[in-house]
Fold:
Amino acid sequence: MDNIFQRMFYSYMKPAWHAIREPSLVEKTAEEIIDDECQGGFEIENRPVTVTLNGVPTETGDYAIVRCSSKADPNEVVFDYCTERYHPLQPREVAQIFDANVRQPAETLAFLGKGDNMFISWAMPEFEVVVGDIVKMYGIVRTGFDTKHGTKLFTSSVRPVCENTVVWAEAWARKNTDKSTNTGMIWTGKGVNRNLGRDLGYWMEHVQSKALAEANLIQSFFGKLAKTPIKNDAETWAILNSAYPTSNKNANDFPWQLRDAQNEKIAQVNAGKEEIRNGVYALFSGLGTAITPDYWGMLNATSEYFCHYQPSKKPVAESIMFGNRAENIMAMVETLQKKSA
Structure:
């Protein structure tokens, strides 16, 4: 589902799956995109809510968050209701904060739903582990112009181009949050914060200023994997057994009536681990795509197995983003990190 509002979408160079607009061949600031691709955007107002009491219009003290009339849509829409403490950011304000603090062209930008949600992404420093093997990350700011969603700043390996992909990107961020390295879910804020725009700008600048240093650290780690050879089958199996070990649990601590069922569960788990080890081994040993005989090749064989070969009854894409497949790939990353330390 794209859920793009009034074709308000921008993508630099790369086409999106929904093909709502052609990708731009020219880099643009977020504010330029608002003007050029989003018909100038729209404004948001908080308007007093009134009810008729004893025949007299009376303000309740609450406010309606209203999307004002614009070139994109002449009809006004109520996004939500709030108190006097709530002051949502304006769409153009979000773009200006992005431009002033990230100081990079936008990678993608879109308004979702009725315009009550928007996101801007930018390409963070990418790096090449080995020739032709590039790792990419994106910084993303997502803002809701209602009382439910707030403003979020996060990083992700998922490039957002629609509602589904920004949800996946945010899920990836929550799964991979590490405050020490400024990855994953970095910061959240609400419209009741009078300094919401200021704080968002500070955090954007902070994340971008740290991005190059963190990319260098990650590149160093992956580069180290690429320079660490795996000498023989014994070492290969040692890595696989460490990442996906056979369980040593038994059912002796269970009531005797439950032991058979528990033993069956343990056997199923171990059969699954064996299937993983055999599958990754087969790809690493020659069936995989351009697999090198080193730690980096082992990681690529693992990713290829979980992304393309492991059977599944559930949607594979979601599992790769933030399900069991993501956890299994991370198990290999952690194993290789420990062994290469």
Observations:
- The chain has two domains: 4-211, 228-340.
- The chain is about 45% helix and 20% strand.
- The two ends are 43 Å apart (CA to CA).
- Residues 53 and 59 are 10 Å apart (CA to CA).
